[in-house]
From TrEMBL:
Signal peptide: none annotated. It comes from the Bacteria. It comes from Deinococcus navajonensis. InterPro entries: DUF892_YciF-like, Ferritin-like, Ferritin-like_SF, YciF. Transmembrane segments: none annotated. This is Ferritin-like domain-containing protein.
Length: 164
């Protein structure tokens, strides 16, 4: 069990949670792309995998600045979200219906990440870690942009799924 003595300890613990979440997601995104039938959705998952690699590198710089190692923690929430994504991948469904389901799973992931990055950014601000704050806000904004892209794709794909 982890002992958290102060906000700095909580900050590091939450960063480790995000690092675990991102590394798990990086493995899952190619599988989601392979399961998607809509070319834009497929490309979006692959693009987000590339973006996730950059987000992990940003977290690496934050950990290096803190003199901490990113490992040693498993994000159980992301494990669950990925398990739901895997269930959708394995579900038999019309292509547009499966794509709509994949978007639902992806948006749950994005909302989890938006929440996580927003939280650690606020901790960084309170702790006076201005460079971390800027770095974390970049990633938070990327996650919000990804969610927006998924919303746009859902508009079209949900219509197709309705006609399936």
């Amino acid at each position: 069990m982890t002992t958290l003595k102060n906000l700095q300890d909580l900050y590091v613990e939450q960063l480790k949670d995000l690092y675990s979440a991102e590394t798990q997601l990086l493995q899952a995104l190619p599988q989601m792309a392979a399961a998607a039938s809509n070319p834009e959705l497929k490309a979006g998952f692959l693009k987000h995998a590339e973006q996730t690699q950059q987000q992990i590198k940003r977290l690496d710089t934050v950990f290096a600045d803190l003199g901490e190692q990113p490992g040693g923690h498993t994000c159980k929430a992301m494990q669950g979200l990925i398990a739901e994504g895997n269930e959708m991948i394995e579900t038999e469904a019309a292509p547009a219906v499966k794509d709509a389901g994949l978007i639902a799973c992806a948006q749950r992931v994005e909302h989890y990440e938006i929440s996580g990055y927003g939280t650690v950014a606020r901790y960084a601000q309170v702790l006076g870690k201005r460079q971390h704050l800027e770095t974390l806000r970049v990633t938070e904004n990327e996650e919000k942009q990804t969610d927006s892209i998924l919303n746009t794709l859902a508009d079209t794909i949900n219509e197709e799924a309705m006609r399936a």
